TrEMBL record:
Belongs to the ComF/GntX family. This is ComF family protein. It comes from the Bacteria.
């Protein structure tokens, strides 16, 4: 098959363990060369998931938590480097849905080691959905875990990417809860998004869910940070 990032043909190397245990094979869609260009986050800020040399709160999060003690516990898989910026440009801005499976194997491995009861994708607003034809977050994770969509996003007059950081932080609540509250009671819930930038989207979604179902245990996950 061809690598979804560089389009070069490659074949997946099977490990001895794959052959010995006949376990379900995770299909790699990224070649070894592109895998090496990705930066996996190993040590991170416990609040936003930013890569760091020590697992302490980063300065942004220290400042944020002083103002508003609402903790997120975001975990992210990869640093949002040039490879991922190029990937998201093609996947989200140009709307190339074929790329949705690029990180399925990496995410499946991550979810296996960090299981939750309920996985909630961050929704797209109706205008973005109509323009792109798919929800990029659902595309990334639907083949990895069973998703429980229960948030609705309000229409946004100005695209987030075009706003300044200050303008993004001031945005009023973006979401409304449209799910069944009883399915989330006392459950370990993982909120899923594609990229963590300021954390504002996640904090809005978290606040909305916590108001609807105060006793759910909430953490967040993004592919990139
Ligand atoms: Zn490649
Ligand atoms: Zn942080």
């Amino acid at each position: 098959m061809n690598c979804l990032l560089c389009q070069q043909p490659f074949s997946q190397n099977l490990t001895l363990a794959d052959l010995l245990y006949w376990r379900p094979l995770l299909v790699e869609r990224i070649c070894a060369h592109c895998q090496r260009r990705l930066q996996v986050i190993t040590t991170a800020c416990p609040e936003c998931g930013r890569t760091q040399t020590s697992p302490q709160l980063c300065r942004d999060c220290q400042r944020w938590l002083k103002k508003q003690p609402q903790q997120l516990h975001n975990q992210a898989l990869f640093v949002y480097n040039a490879v991922l910026q190029d990937f998201f440009k093609r996947y989200k801005s140009l709307g190339d849905y074929r790329l949705h499976a690029a990180f399925t194997a990496d995410c499946q491995r991550w979810f296996k080691h960090h299981p939750a009861d309920i996985y909630i994708p961050i929704p797209t607003d109706a205008a973005s959905y109509a323009r792109r034809g798919f929800n990029p977050v659902v595309g990334l994770y639907a083949d990895c875990v069973s998703l429980t969509p229960c948030l609705k996003k309000q229409p946004q007059p100005v695209k987030q990417a075009h706003k300044s950081r200050q303008a993004r932080l001031r945005t009023p609540q973006l979401f409304t809860f449209v799910g069944t509250k009883t399915t989330l009671h006392n459950k370990k819930v993982l909120l899923l998004d594609d990229i963590y930038t300021t954390g504002r989207t996640m904090r809005h979604a978290q606040a909305c869910l916590k108001t609807a179902v105060p006793d759910c245990q909430l953490q967040t996950f993004t592919l990139a940070r």
